[in-house]
Write a structure and sequence with these properties.
The complex is a heterodimer of chains A (121) and B (376). By secondary structure, chain A is an alpha+beta fold. Chain A has 4 helices and 9 strands; from the N terminus they run βββαβββββααβα. The two termini of chain A are 24 Å apart. In chain B, helix 2 crosses helix 7. Classes of the chains: A alpha+beta (121), B alpha+beta (376). Chain A: This is Glycine cleavage system H protein.
Chain lengths: 121, 376
């Protein structure tokens, strides 16, 4: 199951683990990504907390924890090759994984069709 | 928020939109920050081949004398470079000073070929009105400043700029760095200067506004030329360590503090015949408290304008005034002001990025070699 937020994050849910990245639409708007600051494994976030930072050539943007939980893994490949966010936003360019604290939070999020409509507006 | 309807448009606005430029407000104009190619590729293309920039938002003006006196001599009152010695067709990078010896703006001054020694100046878009006011006030009644409102300005920058432009007008190959002349381009009389602000060889071309669109299209039709937006313009000028007005100086910094003392004329320093000379001569003799330096962050995180610079003890000692990612360098680069004690190359400092201290070093500039075409 993949869900989307209004902040242009995607959340792929597998059991109680959520993998989080930014959407293709978001990477396209940001432009060339040159640096990603990832959270620490073990850090706990509430929904909407600042969890990561993605820097394009021009500017820095916050990435929020779309769902409450504890970081179980980060994509260290982004440290060596931040451009994975551009080339593979929804796959190799994932940011971090969270152990989901409250799966009810997923209910409010958009599915793929709703997100497509959202970015079309 | 800026109302986009109130933004000014350059004669190339429609072309920018047609090319897919992402238009943003900049200095009161709607300007392309990037095209579909993206900032990184635009930057690299300019370093490898040739980039075309619309700089029509910048201010072009003539300064003329009413009484036969040399207008450029008068400009020397507020500009500390050796300008009066310029021969026709020669130009110089200089700064506009205030009474306190602070830099109000930087600009290019050219002596044209007109017999009255007319000056042609190009000032930054954001400070056009302020600069014109300052110049007019300081010039007195015997000089006129005439903004050239009906001219567009294009910059063609990069190692292939010469070969591209020479296909249209072979004589541009004969211009040396910081030389300018009238050139007929496709039947239209234009003003071509061999200069720019990317660290590359290249030209700035002043054309009648009605010719701008056709001429830009002609250049873009060349396989070596891509349209380049403001994003790459910024990283291209940062890598050679070039100052950005309003950021790397803001009216308070002197040319000595800004580390651009090269623009001070030798004889002008001896004569001290410009406003703010007291401070500037004192700083040259005794040194300055703070100095603009290059900063190389050790990690990959860019340090943007406004980032605090701290010493090993955690005390904030300065601030980044320009910073970002240098595509040619392949990593973050920055410049900022630090106390003179910290200005030596290799001095270790910390940059406070998002609350965390990131190690960095004071570094020599330019970060990327300047490749201007000087005559041998």
């Amino acid at each position: 199951m993949i869900k989307y937020t209004e902040d242009h994050e995607w959340i792929a849910v597998d059991g109680d683990i959520a993998t989080i990245g930014i959407t293709d639409h978001a990477q396209n708007a940001l432009g060339d990504v040159v640096f990603v600051e990832l959270p620490e494994v073990g850090a706990a976030y509430g929904q909407g907390d600042d969890a990561a930072v993605v820097e394009s050539v021009k500017a820095a943007s916050e990435v929020y924890a779309p769902i409450s939980g504890e970081v179980t893994e980060v994509n260290s490949a982004l440290e060596d090759d931040p451009s994975l966010v551009n080339s593979s936003a929804t796959d190799a360019g994932w940011f971090f994984k969270l152990k989901i604290a409250d799966s009810n939070e997923l209910d409010e999020m958009m599915d793929e069709d709703a997100y497509s409509d959202f970015i079309a507006d | 928020m800026t109302d986009t309807n109130t933004l000014l448009k350059t004669p190339l606005y429609d072309l920018h939109v047609e090319l897919g430029g992402k238009m943003v407000p900049f200095a009161g104009y709607a300007m392309p920050v990037q095209y579909p190619l993206g900032v990184m590729k635009e930057h690299n293309h300019t370093r490898e081949k040739a980039g075309l920039f619309d700089v029509s938002h910048m201010g072009q003006a003539y300064v003329r004398s009413n009484d036969g006196s040399d207008p450029i001599k008068h400009l020397e009152k507020i500009m500390p470079s050796a300008l009066a010695v310029l021969k026709p067709g020669k130009m110089r990078y200089t700064v506009l000073l205030n009474e306190a010896g602070g830099i109000e703006d930087d600009l290019m001054v050219t002596r044209t070929h007109e017999p009255d020694g007319m000056a042609y100046i190009v000032v930054n878009a954001a400070f056009k009105d302020k600069d014109y006011d300052l110049i007019e006030k300081s010039l007195g009644d015997n000089l006129n400043l005439e903004p050239l409102e009906d001219r567009a300005l294009l910059a063609l920058q990069g190692p292939q700029a010469e070969s591209v432009l020479a296909e249209i007008a072979p004589e541009v190959a004969n211009l040396g760095f910081m030389e300018a002349t009238s050139v007929t381009l496709e039947g239209v009389v234009c003003w071509v200067a061999r200069c720019g602000y990317t660290g590359e060889d290249g030209y700035e071309i002043s054309v009648p506004e009605e010719f701008a669109d056709a001429f830009a299209r002609r250049l873009l039709a060349h396989e070596d030329v891509e349209a380049i937006g403001l994003g790459a313009r910024d990283s291209l000028r940062l890598e050679p360590g070039l100052c950005l007005s309003g950021h790397d100086f803001d009216g308070s910094k002197s040319p000595v503090e800004a580390n651009i003392s090269f623009c001070l004329g030798k004889k002008r320093k001896e004569a001290g015949d410009f406003i703010g000379a007291d401070r500037i001569l004192k700083e040259l003799a005794e040194g300055v408290d703070t100095l603009r330096v290059g900063i190389l962050p050790s990690g990959r995180a860019p340090a943007r304008e406004g980032t605090e610079i701290a010493n090993a003890e955690g005390t904030v000692i300065g601030v980044i005034t320009s910073g970002g990612f240098g595509p040619t360098v392949g990593g973050p680069i920055a410049m900022g002001y630090v106390p003179a004690d910290y200005s030596a190359e290799g001095t270790e400092v910390n940059l406070i990025v998002r609350g965390k201290a990131m190690p960095a070093k004071v570094a020599a500039m330019p970060f990327v070699e300047q490749r201007y075409k000087r005559k041998s």
